[in-house]
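Format notes (please read before filing issues)

Several people have asked whether sequences and structure tokens are stored in separate files. They are not. Every record keeps both together, in the order shown below: the sequence lines, then the token lines. Line labels are part of the format and must not be stripped during preprocessing.
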Amino acid sequence: MVVLDGTVVNLALNRMQVELGLSDQLRSWVVLAYALAYGGLLLLGGRLGDAFGRKRMFLGGVGAFTAASLLCGLATGPVTLQAARVLQGVGAAVASPVAMALIVVTFAPGKTRNQAFSVFAAMTGLGSVSGLILGGALTEVSWRWIFWLNVPIGVFIVIGGLRALTVVPPQRQIKLDVTGAVLATVASTLLVFGLSMGGTGWGRPLVILPIVVGAAVLVAFFRSQRSTSTGVLPLHLFRDRRRTVVFVCLVLAGAVLMAMTVQVALFVQESLGYTPLAAGFAFIPFAVGLGLGAWVAGQAVRTIAPRFLIAAGGIFMLAGFFFAQTLNAHSGYWLHLLPTILIIATGVGLALIPLTLCVVAGVRPEDVGPLTATSLVAQTLGGPLGLAAAAAVGESRTRSLLAGAYPAVQERGALSPAIRDALAAGYTQSLLVCAGLAGIMAVMALVWVRFTPAEVAEGKKAEAAAQSG
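Then the structure lines:
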């Protein structure tokens, strides 16, 4: 459900905006609200399972996600929708990490547990691809169905979990770092809010003040983590500078991925006139390119230093985003959009696989879990930052082209050719933000991510040992 939701919402944003009368900023917050709640509370969510019982917290998380999905589908205005999206993110932040822990305690070490992890990974990949088609098809009927689809699935999981899952006694001695989780979420939210308002003018107090306060709260968060031994962020895992840079690169990769997928989904619907279903089918080659890049990187990382593969992925993404600058409201799919999608997707696959492997390169099996969870948080919280910045740049470009005619943009149900052209220019220019982030990631990896193929192989063994118990 969690993976499916992340895919289908992008395709429904245009229809939500038209029906609910959302501004461009509020439209972005349909995605941002969920991602911030999910990423900000993810590490705390895993601890809740240990403190209060994994079965109880998993079913509670799924229940909250399911109830929030129902509320999202019933929303009649932005306040209800955004609040329900936050609740969805909270439910996902509890259910996702506890689900992984339940696999460990439910399945015996060895082949059985490895098969369970393989099924889990396969379902994640299937959810990403099927969400493109299913989300597009459901949005054609009504965007509300992309949320209501979660309700019967969630009810089935809760009923099945009550019957099948084993009760594991909670570890009451675990201390929860609620303060750290709140500080991280507040800091991320303030930074994202400031960036998201940049489209109306980067020098405005509404932009500068949230960014400054958010940065101060972020500093307070890191200080709080240094003063406690039970913090949500295990700082001792960052002693290796190479690994610290890997996490920064994962933040950048998450920013690129979310910004690109949302902006291109809006571009093909608002500028090219695609239906949600056609947009879903148009994005399927992204999964092909991603898989190709991931396969090449997975084979090459055995003998080639990961920093070269990450840099190569960054170069592919740069090429794709610069080629995207040729897109406009009259671009064709086969000659323009498809090559853009394939080039960028291949670059993402080339970069993400070695980055993920570097997270656990040369570590002990007991460190694999915390490092993997932290890497997921880095990617998840990077997404809102990238989307907020890219959307603001795009809005700024569209405003400059339309000048006094910009208010007509909000009438998304009836866009004139001139407005479609201006929106296309904004969306393509927003992808330059992605290009810049990809370039920074490539340079940082090339200079500082100096893990060797031998250390990557050692990390793979530690990961296998951690999964098999």
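For reference, the curators noted about this record: Residues 256 and 434 are 5 Å apart (CA to CA). The mean pLDDT is 90.
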